[in-house]
Amino acid sequence: MTLVAKVSALATRLGSEIKSLTTAVAANTAKVSNATHTGDVTGATTLTIEDGKVTKLKTDAGVQASLGKADSALQSGDIGSTVQGYDADMLKADTTANLTAAFTAAIDDDGTITTGTYTPTTAAGSQYKKIIGGGAFTLAPPVVATNTATTLSLFIINNSSAGAITTSGFTKVAGDAFTTTNGDKFSCRIEVNDIGGTEYSTLTVLAMQ
């Protein structure tokens, strides 16, 4: 076979193989089905997860891994330890309840007030406050949201630097007068009611000496 004949035969063979390859690529591109699956996932063109196949056991590991947790499911022993157990007596903000036992509350120590305006608040801590009167200052009521109310108990103890205590912002002030005498104590009750955006507040002062 001459060289020309060999080249011609090779060209014919390559052309045939290229045509076959082109046909195969086109068929694969147009393919819309897969091998038929069986088990938890079935189907060929459209795959379907069978009912009841996604179980807690199969999802725990993946979820916990994504959360960086150990591969272990919640155990009954976790209730009351790492997970708070159900308690029918638990108070809820949006559920009416009837308290049948007394309770106590911590007293927030707001330190020594020497000047400026002292405004007790229930935004943090308890509704029971204590301060030392160490200078002349102004006592003002807290601000509450529209159509809400709050009450506060405030205990004031004068030290040797006690000054005059004036009030500002209260709708009504009643009771005993504040003094500047060292050691004098005053038990104060503050009540604030916001009615439609207008705040009404009262201060009642009881001298403890």
Give a quick account of the main beta sheet: strands, pairing sense, barrel closure. Answer: 6 strands, mixed
- Helix-and-strand structural type: alpha/beta
Strand proportion, as a percent range, falls in 25-35%
Strand order of the largest sheet: 3-5-7-10-11-9
Radius of gyration based on Cα positions: 40 Å
Question: What key attributes describe this structure?
Answer:
three-stranded parallel sheet; alpha/beta; six-stranded mixed sheet; 209 residues
Structural overview:
- With 209 residues, this protein is an alpha/beta fold.
- The protein has a domain at 108-207.
- The chain is 18% helix and 28% strand.
- The protein has 2 helices and 11 strands, in the order αββαβββββββββ.
- A 6-stranded mixed β-sheet has the order 3-5-7-10-11-9, with no helix packed on it. Strands 4-6-8 form a 3-stranded parallel β-sheet, with no helix packed on it.
- The mean pLDDT is 84.
